[in-house]
Each structure stands twice: as structure tokens, then as C-alpha cells.
Write a structure and sequence with these properties.
Elements lengths: L2 E4 L10 E5 L4 E6 L5 E6 L3 E5 L7 E6 L2 E2 L23 E4 L26 E9 L2 E13 L5 E11 L4 E10 L5 E3 L2 E4 L8 E4 L8 E3 L11 H12 L17 E5 L10 E6 L5 E6 L6 E8 L4 E9 L6 H7 L3 E3 L4 E11 L1 H15 L1
Antiparallel strand pairs: 1-9, 2-3, 3-4, 4-5, 5-6, 6-7, 8-14, 9-10, 10-11, 11-12, 12-23, 13-22, 15-18, 16-17, 17-20, 18-19, 19-23, 20-21
């Protein structure tokens, strides 16, 4: 990082202010009417809005005239205690001590501490790397429980000149002298598009895509939803195209197994729009060895988690512990994860589809 500017809460006002401008990249800061502080990062292709002190969420991502993130009833983030009371972001970090939908034996909240954590400090970062000039937002969230876990979360999101992709990373440091259990997910929420086509570097088989048949406590299911769920158990490929009549109310989830990777270890996923541009995400299964697809289309909201890379399935602590999916961070050490997500124009989407076709051939 070439330049790092610590963000002060007192700088943020309802009037949007320019904090940095290179002529190619620009950072502005403002406060929503709800009181939540925001940093807007802009390049030639579009913008992202990051909540530096609330979960370091990417609240909005818009490139080439299109909003990427899920459809939501919330027009702005709220200063709520739980993210379900202000849910509409493009990215939220989940975990790291607990993650997923709590089961009957669990006492943790849905997706853990990180989605709406109050960050202790945040910074704007600027510099140049192998991809060119960049701007980003980073910060630290310290968790320190007496006679319990002690960790520090250090996320970073960056945009580069001329690019409609976002670099996303998270480092979790165990500050204790004892091992710490780990459950983490990068929850990236695209907007499902009617007749959008999913292209993925994983096979459309029951073995590679296991549908979740358990219905979480926070949702209610109608008979037509249960019927559709039964069909997907036999044929996951029914979801390859987002058809208007398919029932994603309240939500469908798949556990994705054994994705193919390219020569650099990346696994790739796209939603190709009717205009042949695409929503896109990639991650490294060597870092995040679990992956969930989440699709929800209701009258009030619509979200598509093309790939939600994670260290375990999102079934809650007790269930994941029984499956042996809970990992550990050794004492006084850390782990890091990287994801790239955003928009691909038609030509780049076509090239990516050819690559994916070679991987799954």
C-alpha cells in the first residue's frame, strides 16, 4: 500500500465530500440519513459504496450503468444491531467464531459477529500494483472476551483503474495464546435476472450440487416451494437459467462440491445476462474449501449468491462441528482469504465462458 489515510468519524457529514481524487480514481465520504457512514470509491467504470465502520460491508456496487447487488426493501443501510434489519448489501463478511443458520442446539446469531460489526478503525488506501492504480477501504475489528476468544478482523476491498471487478480480502488473526475455532464466509449478493444463465466451473450433477432440504427457522415455505425443492434434488440443472415461474420464495441453497480450478487455483462463476454481459465471482478452493449457492426471489427482495465461498457449510455451529468442518487458527497466527467479484462486459464474459467450458470438459 502506497498511501493510507485513517478515517475519522467526525469527517463524515450528510453533504458528500471529496477525500481523494487522482483524476482516474476518486473517494468521497458522507453519512446516510440513518447515521451510517459511507465511503464511495469511483473509477471510469462505476462505483462501490463501503460502510467503513459497520461490518466493512460493500453496501452498493454499480458498474457500466447496472446495479449489481440484490434487490432489497432498504433504500439505505440502517444502524441496526442485526443485519436482517438492514439487509441489502453486495458483500458482507460472515463469522468468524460462528457462521450460518443456527440450529436448535445453537445459541449464536445468524452468520455471526462480522456482518454488522462496529469497526474500531478504518482507512482509505491508495496505490499502484500489478493491475494498475487502486483505491480501497480497510480497517480493524477487535474482539476480546475475557477467558475466551480474542481475534482481529482485517478486511480490504479495492477497485482498480479501468476495471469493473472488486478485489475482496479478509485476514482473521487469532490474538490468543490458544487455538481458535474458525467459521468464515464471503457472502456476495448479486441480483438474479430473469432468463439469466449460470455458467460455472463445476458439474451440474447431484454429486457436485447437493440441494439443502432443511428449511431455516427464519423462513416459511409454501407447498409449491417444497415441490420445486424436490425436483432440484433430482436435477440441479433446472436452476441453470433463472426462469420467471420457478419458485425461489423464500430461498433455495445448494452445497457445491469439487469445483474445477484454473492454472492459478481459481474457480469461476457467472450469471450471464440476456445482453451477454455477466455478473462474475472467483475464489480459490484451496483457501475456502466450501461453497454455497443461494437464490431468493420474493415480492420484496431478490438475491443470488452465485458462489458463497466459505470454510464450512452454513448450517450452524453444532451441525458443522458434527461434520468435522470447523477449522482452527493456531495460537498467535492468522489466515487470509481472497475473492474477486463484479461485472464482465460481453467480450470478457465470452472469454470467461470459454475458459470455464475447458475446465469442466
Amino acid at each position: 500500500m502506497d498511501v493510507k489515510v485513517a478515517l475519522r468519524r467526525g469527517w463524515f457529514t450528510e453533504k458528500e465530500q471529496v477525500l481523494a481524487d487522482t483524476g482516474i480514481l476518486k473517494a468521497t465520504i458522507f453519512v446516510y440519513e440513518s447515521g451510517v457512514r459511507a465511503v464511495k470509491l469511483t473509477n471510469e467504470q462505476g462505483q462501490i459504496i463501503v460502510l467503513p465502520f459497520k461490518g466493512q460491508q460493500i453496501w452498493n456496487a454499480s458498474f457500466r450503468g447496472r446495479t449489481l447487488n440484490m434487490k432489497t426493501m432498504y433504500r439505505q443501510p440502517k444502524d441496526a444491531e442485526h443485519f436482517l434489519d438492514t439487509y441489502g448489501c453486495f458483500l458482507m463478511h460472515c463469522g468468524p467464531l460462528r457462521m450460518g443458520c443456527p440450529g436448535p442446539e445453537d445459541d449464536h446469531v445468524l452468520h455471526g459477529d462480522l456482518p454488522y460489526a462496529d469497526y474500531d478503525e478504518a482507512s482509505l488506501v491508495m496505490g499502484e500494483d500489478e493491475q494498475g492504480q487502486y483505491m480501497g477501504v480497510t480497517g480493524t475489528f477487535d474482539y476480546n472476551r475475557a477467558f475466551g476468544e480474542k481475534y482481529q478482523a482485517r478486511p480490504l476491498v479495492k477497485i482498480h483503474e479501468g476495471s469493473s471487478l472488486i478485489d475482496i480480502s479478509m485476514e482473521i488473526g487469532n490474538r490468543s495464546h490458544y487455538p481458535m475455532e474458525l467459521m468464515y464466509m464471503a457472502h456476495v449478493n448479486f441480483r438474479p435476472v430473469e432468463h439469466g444463465r449460470i455458467v460455472q466451473s463445476v458439474d451440474w450433477t447431484q454429486e457436485s450440487m447437493r440441494v439443502r432440504t432443511a428449511i431455516p427457522d427464519h423462513v416459511e415455505a409454501a407447498p409449491d416451494f417444497v415441490e420445486f425443492l424436490g425436483k432440484l434434488e433430482d436435477d440441479p440443472k433446472l436452476t441453470e437459467v433463472i426462469r420467471p415461474d420457478d419458485v425461489y420464495d423464500p430461498e433455495i441453497a445448494f452445497f457445491i462440491q469439487s469445483p474445477k480450478v484454473d492454472s492459478n487455483g481459481w474457480s469461476h462463476f457467472m450469471q450471464v445476462h440476456p445482453n451477454k454481459s455477466a455478473d462474475y465471482i472467483r475464489y480459490k478452493p484451496q483457501e475456502l474449501d466450501h461453497n454455497t449457492r443461494w437464490i431468493s426471489r420474493t415480492a420484496d427482495q431478490a438475491g443470488l449468491g452465485l458462489a458463497l465461498p466459505a470454510t464450512c457449510d452454513p448450517e450452524g455451529y453444532t451441525a458443522e462441528k458434527k461434520k468435522g468442518n470447523i477449522k482452527e487458527i493456531p495460537a498467535r497466527s492468522s489466515v487470509s482469504f481472497s475473492v474477486v467479484a463484479g461485472h464482465l462486459p460481453e467480450a470478457e464474459a465470452d472469454q470467461m465462458e470459454q475458459l470455464i467450458a475447458e475446465l469442466v470438459a
